[in-house]
UniProtKB/TrEMBL annotation:
One GO MF term: catalytic activity
Record family assignment: Belongs to the amidase family.
Protein name: Amidase
PROSITE patterns attached to this UniProt entry: AMIDASES
Boundaries of every Amidase domain copy: 23-441
Native source species: Nonomuraea montanisoli
Length: 461
């Protein structure tokens, strides 16, 4: 199916005039028309303008002026505003609001020739690890419709898995790129803080990262190279721009640390099996993989995160909740009502203590391998309340293992598929690099992608 081509292969075929951008976009739109009623990954279709761009891309290929993403269909997370289009963030409070400017990521995709044909769903204000809202309804996992694609970039993950986009954007403040990447069997990259420019005020929040999602590691690298680099609107954006090199997947001689639990996370058997398979694949490829222990506890991680979220994310939502609580989703109100154990300052102290053993570990190892989630996926309509994780009931976010690396925000992290659980939902692993060492995590991910058996595509859609 053309809609499941990788972006790099599609670009190659279009460059050789063996595929038309119009033909590719038509296949993607036809796929969306067929599956969208069941997965509900899109908030807005931009098919008419996209088709005009596809026709222009044909001319660019004929003239030899094709850009890096020329003619490639890209789905953009609705949280990334596009000037002149709605920017509702899944909330009844913002219904009908129109953006006055475009996110730098959106602008760079367009400048590189990418065709933004759709915008993707999120939970309200992107504040959950699942994707449903009172405004847009429930987004479902293409692998098993009873499950969530994860969140908050769940629409992007579901779209990629379903074949309704070749590339997609996401953002990650607690795992919101990596959670859907894992649950949907795709690849997602949390860049280190400042690598990809963002808009105020969240460009100043070290937990917050905008980044690329795709079905292959090479495609994620392609999109990352387009969106990365300093921007005049973002004081935190890094100079100089990092260009990821061609990936060889050579891990011979690398030292990889393996942690199955990141301290005391309760990890379900299917996830453990996928992580061990990834470790064996790296060993077979010539890496030295050594299981290690980290002194973290789930309570410690959540206490630091709660202090941060309450001070930044929760405070912003709290202003809205004060006057319009009745219009908010239950999970959004919980954010506004957070009463963390620690002050924001105490949370920062704890964040420093949490990073230290990881930093020391990464002095001895080139990267860390661990599960992305403790469970394969959340139920599609989970309300954000307690959830059983490997037999123990607790906060549902204890089902994800991503937050430590928002705390360690300068560490690049890639999530790649590791297998498929008994429920039919994929599992994933995270590759965590030293601060700002993006290249190594991409090389390790490229190796894993080639060494592990493919997980195929969702059946039955």
């Amino acid at each position: 199916m053309l809609c499941y081509l990788s972006a790099t292969e599609a670009h190659r075929l279009m460059s050789r005039r063996e595929l038309s951008p119009v033909e590719l976009l038509t296949a993607v739109i036809d796929r969306a028309e067929a599956v969208e009623p069941r997965i509900n990954a899109f908030t807005e279709h931009l098919y008419e303008s996209a088709m005009e761009q596809a026709k222009a891309a044909e001319t660019a290929y004929l003239n030899g002026t094709a850009r890096p993403l020329e003619g490639v269909p890209v789905a953009v997370k609705e949280e990334h505003p596009i000037e002149g289009h709605t920017h509702e963030e899944g909330s009844l409070l913002l219904q009908g609001m129109v953006a006055e400017e475009s996110h730098p990521v959106v602008t760079r995709i367009a400048q590189a020739g990418g065709i933004i044909h759709a915008r993707t769903t999120t939970p309200e204000f992107s504040c959950a690890g699942f994707t449903h809202s009172r405004l847009w309804g429930v987004t479902r996992n293409p692998w098993n419709l009873d499950y969530s694609p994860g969140g908050s970039s769940g629409g992007s993950g579901a779209s990629l898995a379903a074949g309704t986009s070749l590339l997609a954007t996401g953002s990650d403040i607690g795992g919101s790129i990596r959670i859907p990447a894992s649950s949907c069997g795709v690849v997602g990259f949390k860049p280190p803080f400042g690598r990809v420019p963002a808009l105020p005020p969240f460009n100043l929040d070290q937990y917050c990262h905008d980044g690329p999602m795709a079905r292959t590691v090479a495609d994620v690298a392609l999109l990352q190279n387009v969106i990365a680099g300093p921007h005049p609107w973002d004081v935190a954006s890094l100079r100089p721009r990092l260009e990821l090199p061609p990936l060889t997947g050579d891990v011979r001689g690398m030292r990889i640390a393996l942690s199955l639990t990141l301290g005391d996370y309760l990890v379900e058997p299917d996830v453990v099996a996928g992580t061990l398979a990834a470790a064996e694949a790296l060993r077979a490829a010539g890496a030295v993989v050594e299981e290690v222990a980290l002194p973290w506890t789930r309570g410690q991680i959540m206490a630091a995160a709660d202090a941060h979220f309450a001070g930044i994310f929760g405070a912003g939502i709290g202003e809205l909740a004060a006057e319009h609580a009745d219009l908010l989703s239950d999970y959004t109100r919980r954010f506004a009502e957070m009463k963390p154990e620690l002050s924001f300052y105490q949370g920062m102290e704890l964040e420093g203590l949490i990073y230290r053993p990881l930093g020391e570990l990464l002095e001895r190892f080139d990267a860390l391998l661990c599960p992305t989630m403790a469970v394969p996926a959340f139920p599609a309509e989970h309300d954000g309340g307690p959830l059983s994780v490997n037999g123990e009931s607790g906060h549902y976010m204890l089902g994800v293992m991503t937050i430590p690396f928002n705390i360690a925000s300068r560490c690049p992290v890639l999530s790649v598929p590791s297998g498929v659980a008994a429920t039919g939902v994929p599992t994933g692993v995270q590759i965590v690099g030293r601060t700002y060492d993006d290249v190594t995590v991409f090389q390790v991910a490229s190796c894993l992608e080639a060494a592990l058996p493919g997980i195929g595509r969702p059946a039955g859609l």
